[in-house]
Amino acid sequence: MPPPGGFEAVKYKRNLPFRGPSGLVILGAVTAVCAYGFYRVGMGNLERRELQREQVWSRIHLVPLLVAEGDRDAYRRQQAAIQREGEIMKNVKGWEGFSSEGTDPEHTPFSGLRDNRAYKKSQS
Fold this sequence. Notes:
The protein is rod-shaped, with a radius of gyration of 43 Å. The N and C termini lie far apart (131 Å). By secondary structure, it is mainly alpha-helical. It is built from two helices and no strands. It has helices at residues 23-88, 116-123.
């Protein structure tokens, strides 16, 4: 038999505490973090592309300087060879020294400011 006044009410409601943000909030946060990451990757790609462009242009602008340096070095070596040849051959009769026979634009030091074929055509 039931006790006087009846049975105590059955507690069927779950009393769970709040356990953090909802799934929608987490999804929104992950989307925001990914969007910011892609933004930073895009900015990094633009920066890298700009640095690469700057490096290419700096190399392009250095080419005439490097060619001139090579030409000066070739000229210095040629003059030293002529001087050494003069020292070696100073006692040989009939030796005239360095002559320009056989020199043509094909065998001159490279100059990036002209194309050898175009230079030959203009010389003939």
